[in-house]
Design a protein that fits this description.
The complex is a heterodimer. Chain A has helices spanning 2-10, 14-54, 64-67, 77-86, 119-126, 150-156, 191-194, 202-209, 229-240, 248-251, 253-290, 293-301, 306-342, 350-355, 368-395, 398-403; strands at residues 57-60, 90-104, 109-117, 132-135, 145-149, 163-169, 175-186, 197-201, 218-223, 244-247, 344-345, 361-362. Chain A has a 6-stranded mixed beta barrel with strand order 2-3-8-5-7-6, surrounded by 4 helices. The longest helix of chain A is centred in the first third of the chain and has 41 residues, at 14-54. Chain A has 16 helices and 12 strands. Helix content of chain A is 57%, strand content 19%. By secondary structure, chain A is of the alpha+beta class. In chain A, helix 2 crosses helix 13 (306-342), helix 11 crosses helix 13 (306-342) and helix 13 runs antiparallel to helix 15 (368-395). Chain B has a single domain (5-229), classed as Rossmann fold. In chain B, helix 3 packs across helix 4 (120-133), helix 3 (105-115) packs parallel to helix 5 (149-161) and helix 5 packs parallel to helix 6. The chains are: A alpha+beta, B alpha/beta. The A-B interface holds A 1, 5, 8-9, 11-12, 294-295, 297-306, 308, 398-399, 402-403 and B 50, 54, 57, 59-60, 79-80, 83-84, 86-88, 92, 94, 96-98, 100-103, 111-112, 114-115, 159-160, 163. The structure holds adenosine-5'-triphosphate and magnesium ion. Magnesium ion (MG) binds at residues 49-50, 171 of chain B.
Chain lengths: 405, 231
């Protein structure tokens, strides 16, 4: 009975209730969209790093990443690589020689990290050639070819077919230099990486640094089951000890930090939104209670006890508040679905986004956990918002309420 | 036998002291109402009629004196006990705002029985019986806003009677009605009084209503000035 009365009471001030319901629909919808956009951007960032930089798992000599000493290489890396490529868990794998050096043209010089790569495997693992905006892939019949980024090309004022010199330390500790011809110019969404990495053929770097033929500094893997990365990595770690096996999270701990930071931000946004909502609801329900004082007084006079009056107001508040929530969430869900499929093009801001290593196309998405969080937050809000008006209602004394005109 | 007395107040005092100047609204009222009486409480405005009815109805507490309703001393009941007591023993009819606007006439009459968790069969038959008694059996499904003021007051009487209270208290039930509706309502109340032996206590200013009462208690300045019964 009480829910029925409460339900009908909502529709007494149809416009007022619809305004509240409407604002909740819009608010929840906007919140879902915002959180989805947030999450989409974070995924964008993380995926970019995984796809272009870290892959899922990397192998190094246990001390290599401390100061990139050329001598700290993985011996027999080619054997390891072919073993890994046999494994069904692995989608693609590649090995690299990594050398810190100085890249110079007749105009300028720039500190770089030279990645000596297996072109075909690198293409499968990080899509190196997909990023080339000018020039060609490596020509396997020629030596000493280099692919550099557009930013470095501009800085060194070099073009395709220009000659550049790479200076570095070889495994004997001697400084040596070699001339390379620019064959390709690439561009990614990450400014910092673009200013750091240049690519050559792995065999060129082995030869120039006097490394053994099967040496590599890094092996990178893409796994087929993303969710099993951690488990798989620890298995590999046990098998290949003492080689250091790390997941992308261990390689870039900032990703996890970023991830949890975003989670906190989402909770803060939801809280702010709910605070705004709570006052709107309280205000409306207080109005609804105060304009019905006489009726509430009459109800208490004829025998409706305080608990029932309290719950009648609570029901009313819950109905008004919760009616809009599923509609808002549904609309938000559909909006995200559509925008995820279409993508949001942020190329207008792409220069700013490159600073953060983000791509232009954001695909908003929201995990079910976040939907549950929003739903829970709305229910808590509605319950909290119902208490004050309900307390006001039972504070009435029937005689006083009835005496008022 | 004593139990024929449904209301007994003695030495009733009421002082409103929440105001700047305390108002002595009742100054020693003694009154007994027996089952089956049809009593009008009359008197000039401010004489204390509403105050007296509120105290009898357990809506307000006296400053001093004794109130026995249906054999119970209600002075010492807690607020919640009072609500329960009112629900069981007293039927109220107010000047206005008697009905829940969002419920139909039938649902309004049923309402207190629902609070008392009576069975559906009992509710249905009692509601029908009452709506017939007040002459509105054909308006069961109408909401209060679809009824005239007089019809609303009749539904209010049916609503008040639903839990079979010891008596009906009505504070100026006809104040908002035209003379025809007033006459109708009074006819109906008188008939219920005569045929069902239902006890009515009502306050009024209206001479035509006073003329219909079988007992007239006149208040003045918070005291009983006169108390006439006629047959
Ligand atoms: N809550 C209150 N606070 C202070 N004084 C009050 C209060 N209620 C009533 N009074 C005063 O008590 C006195 C009796 O009031 P009451 O309402 O009982 O009179 P009444 O006979 O019902 O009058 P009316 O015919 O106008 O309805 C009046 O002087 C009134 O001003
Ligand atoms: Mg009065």
């Amino acid at each position: 009975m009480l829910p029925i009365v409460a339900w009908r009471n909502i529709w007494r001030s149809r416009t007022r209730s619809l305004v509240v319901i409407g604002s909740i629909v819009i608010g929840v919808w906007a919140l879902v969209f915002l959180l989805g956009f947030f999450r989409g951007q974070v995924n964008n960032y993380i995926n970019n790093i995984i796809e272009n930089e870290t892959s899922h798992i990397q192998f190094h000599d246990s001390l290599f990443t401390e100061d990139y000493d050329v001598r700290l290489f993985i011996a027999q890396s080619e054997n390891i690589l072919s073993e890994l490529q046999e494994r069904p868990e692995i989608g693609s794998a590649t090995s690299r020689v990594i050398v810190n050096g100085m890249l110079s043209s007749s105009n300028a010089a720039q500190g770089v990290m030279v990645k000596g790569v297996h072109p075909d495997q690198e293409q499968m693992t990080t899509g190196l050639y997909d990023k080339i905006i000018e020039g060609t892939p490596f020509d396997s019949t020629r030596r000493n070819q280099i692919i550099i980024s557009q930013r470095i090309a501009e800085k060194l004022k070099v073009k395709i077919r220009s000659k550049v010199v790479v200076t570095f330390q070889n495994t004997d500790g001697d400084i040596s230099a070699a001339a390379f011809r620019v064959v390709g110019i690439y561009k990614t969404h990450n400014r910092m990486n673009d200013e750091l990495y240049v690519f050559t053929h792995i065999d060129d770097m082995r030869r120039l640094t006097l490394l053994p033929d099967d040496a590599a500094h890094e092996i990178a893997l893409v796994v087929n089951e993303f969710d099993s990365t951690d488990v798989f990595a620890s298995r590999l770690s046990a098998e290949y000890a003492p080689i250091l096996v790390q997941t992308y999270k261990q390689i870039s701990p900032d990703l996890e930090l970023f991830n949890s930071q975003i989670r906190v931000n989402m909770i803060i946004m939801t809280t702010i939104f709910m605070l705004a909502l709570i006052f709107g609801i309280i205000n409306t329900m207080l109005m609804a209670v105060l304009e019905r004082m006489k009726e509430l007084g009459m109800l208490m006079a004829i025998g409706m006890n305080k608990l029932r009056v309290f719950f009648m107001v609570v029901y009313e508040t819950l109905f008004v508040s919760l009616l809009g929530a599923p509609i808002g969430m549904g609309l938000g869900y559909l909006t995200l679905k559509y925008l995820h499929y279409r993508g949001i093009d942020l190329s207008a801001w792409s220069r700013a986004l490159e600073e953060f290593g983000m791509a232009d196309l954001v695909r908003p998405v929201l995990d079910s956990e976040s939907y549950v969080m929003i739903a829970t937050a709305i229910v808590i809000t509605a319950v909290l918002a119902s208490i004050y008006p309900a307390l006001r209602a039972i504070r009435l004394k029937p005689v006083e309420a009835l005496r008022k005109i | 036998m004593e139990n024929n007395i449904v209301i007994k107040v003695s030495d009733l005092e009421k002082i409103y002291d929440e105001t700047a100047v305390p108002v002595h609204a009742l100054r020693g009222v003694d009154l007994e109402i027996r089952r089956g009486e049809f009593t009008a409480i009359v008197g000039p405005s401010g004489s204390g009629k509403t105050t007296l009815l509120n105290i009898i109805g357990g809506l307000d507490r006296p400053t001093a004196g004794k109130v026995e309703v249906d054999g119970n001393d209600i002075a010492n009941l807690s607020d919640n006990q009072l609500i329960d007591f009112r629900k069981k023993h007293i039927g109220f009819v107010f000047q206005s705002y008697n009905l829940i606007p969002v419920l139909t006439a039938k649902e309004n009459v049923e309402f207190v029985m629902l609070l008392q968790k009576r069975s559906k069969a009992e509710r249905d038959s009692r509601t029908r019986e009452l709506m017939e008694a007040v002459g509105l059996a054909d308006r069961m499904q109408n909401r209060p806003s679809e009824l005239s003021g007089g019809q609303q007051q009749r539904v209010a009487v049916a609503r008040a009677l639903a839990p079979k209270p010891a008596f009906i208290l009505a504070d100026e039930p006809t104040a908002n009605l035209d003379s025809k509706s007033t006459a109708n309502l009074l006819d109906m109340m008188a008939r219920l009084n005569k045929e069902e032996n239902i006890t009515f206590v009502f306050s009024t200013h209206d001479q035509r209503v006073i003329d219909r009462a079988r007992r007239v208690v006149t208040l003045e300045d918070g005291k009983v000035l006169s108390d006439h019964s006629r047959e």
